[in-house]
Amino acid sequence: MTLKNDLIIRAALGEKVERTPVWLMRQAGRILPEYRAIRSKMGGFIELVKSPEFACEVSIQPVDILGVDAAIIFSDILVIPEAMGLSYKMVESKGPWFEKTIHNLSDIEALGIASEENYSYVLDAIKLTKKELNNRVPLIGFAGAPWTIFAYMVEGSGSKTFSQAKKFLYTQPELSHRLLQKITDSTINYLRSQINTGTDMIQLFDSWAGILSSAQYTEFALAYISKICDALKKSHPNTPITVFAKGAFFALKEMSDLNCDTIGLDWNMSIKHSRVDVGNNKTLQGNMDPCLLYSDNATIKKETEKMLFEFGPNRYIANLGHGLYPDIEKEKVIYFVETIKNYKHS
Amino acid sequence: MTLKNDLIIRAALGEKVERTPVWLMRQAGRILPEYRAIRSKMGGFIELVKSPEFACEVSIQPVDILGVDAAIIFSDILVIPEAMGLSYKMVESKGPWFEKTIHNLSDIEALGIASEENYSYVLDAIKLTKKELNNRVPLIGFAGAPWTIFAYMVEGSGSKTFSQAKKFLYTQPELSHRLLQKITDSTINYLRSQINTGTDMIQLFDSWAGILSSAQYTEFALAYISKICDALKKSHPNTPITVFAKGAFFALKEMSDLNCDTIGLDWNMSIKHSRVDVGNNKTLQGNMDPCLLYSDNATIKKETEKMLFEFGPNRYIANLGHGLYPDIEKEKVIYFVETIKNYKHS
What residue of A is the nearest CA neighbor of B217? Predict the structure, then answer.
């Protein structure tokens, strides 16, 4: 039962680590030829997410191939809307698309609160992955943060502005809170199930944090992230929680009060200022620009070591400031991971 | 020759004003039924940009209909790539699309430096608009900032990540500088021509500022914005310049050194912190979330007055933090403008 490599867990909890641990957002996916090879033989993205055998195999690939210090379960943040009753399609080169979106109270009342029977395939994938990982490294579970899930459920697809989702916040604040609470209840169930099934730590992704104003982010996003953290810490006090709110530089100070262990940073956020805002009682994660990995090795090494030096030896998990982009070469990713694993703080 | 309403010019130059002046990004366009009525009878977007009569008519509409304190010439930031030799199409509901993009040195060498004969239709539109405006309010000219233009020329279309444009910065820094310098030279010509033809002030739009890291923004974006400001101030010292770098919260302090008069803010940027970063020697412009204008009048009034109070009576031009979204109702925009014009600082 004991993890052979628990560096990430210890870094999240603020314990001393022998070296900086590393994992990468979107490490399980299209950057790996090994992933593309399996995927080309199979169906669409959502079918893959629903296949525990496939999800297990591709979740473990980056541990074997890239040498990262954690696996993350191959899944999608839109499992939750679907589990609540809003199904979606993945349109090639366009992203997710919902046939039905949320407009009014009856749409919200028609949604269920997600529970095990609605997302059992994810739990099956976690079980299988934990078994196959054989405790080599921790398994990270995740969910979208309520605002980001809300944004898709109202907008119906990705968007540069999410103006329809924001319109709903402005015109229907009470209904917005009602929907966010339902998403929050579903997410708490979902993440508790993930932890009960074996995930060793949890990350909340607030991908569209950066399009809200500071005041709206506090009211419609952070309030619900806070409820999720509190609920998980009550039921599972030892499971580290990471909150990554992309673009929410303006909220870092407030986020220091969250009942979580790690705050993710994107590459726009200054390491120095973020540490001041977040304080010393939380671990930071991030924050390299994924596009650095298009560079030559010398540039990758130089910039990565600069980042490692700035974050310092403890209370830090190395990662990118966004997910890996699909056309980044595997060899560059391996070089980035090795640079981190070989770095010694002097 | 004297402007009847020069509030915006005086606010930009830091002079005392009787009330806060206001204009709105994308005020000339789809939010006005009067615009849509003319447009539906005509061709595509690019043809409209190239029609001085159309551009004149729709540039003046918001002055008459919305009561704003300035007109902005109806045009497009992609006039410059086209004037340099890279033409584009506007694909309905997808945005701009370039058939040819920039990959290497010979692509860059094939580009021209834009000069009057390449963008004479914009100058014709400015001439006509100045005449029709009859000095009621100032006419604003504009261009995209070099990094944003570069991003389209390399990526070939809009993008959530602009990963190909950023890849070019990482892998071809010298070629990137060469291309940015050519765009800069073209933009200086273009803006000087605009001022010579009659525009009363200038705005640079760096729409994709927010996807660069702070270090890249300094090297590949601000350096060229700075060259443009210096060149314009040398030739036209009395024409106010506004720089709006959307998402570049991390660069505000550095931007205080630009040879410009006004810094635009988006709605993520805190008014208080921005004023500290920018200092007291520049005017601020912005920064309401355009989605506020989906709200009821009471909410619009409350939030707008809060913004006006926070910015204070001088060194401020009211605006949104982004362009108007096409489905915002004209009546709401008028109410926003009137709220600003009626506000009295106590």
Answer: A268
Mean pLDDT of B328-339: 98
Strand duo A241-245 + A201-206: pairing: parallel
Q: Which amino acid, one-letter code, is at B134?
A: N
Q: Given pLDDT bands bounded at 50, 70 and 90, which one contains residue B1?
A: low
Determine the distance in angstroms separating the CA of B123 from the nearest CA of chain A, rounded to an integer.
31
Domains of chain B: 7-342 (3.20.20.210)
Residue of B nearest to A168 (CA): B294
- Cβ proximity of A299 and B170 under 8 Å: yes
Sign of CA dihedral A31, A32, A36, A42: negative
Residue of B206, B213, B220, B304 to mutate when probing chain A, most A C-beta within 10 A: B213
What is the complex's ipTM, to 2 decimals? 0.95
Tell me the chain B residues in contact with residue A322 when contact means C-beta distances shorter than 8 Å. 161
Angle made by CA atoms B97, B100, B102, in degrees to the nearest 5: 110
Is A26 a residue of the active site? Answer: yes
User: Contact B163/A291, CB-based, under 8 Å?
Assistant: yes
Residue A84: name the closest of A150, A170, A175 by CA. A150
Neighbouring CB atoms inside 10 A of B308's CB total 21
The pLDDT tens digits for A44-89 are 889 999 999 999 999 999 999 999 999 999 999 999 999 999 999 9
The residues with which A319 forms a beta bridge, in sequence order, are A287
Q: Is the peptide bond before B287 cis (omega within 30 degrees of 0)?
A: yes
Q: Are A207 and A77 in contact (CB under 8 A)?
A: yes
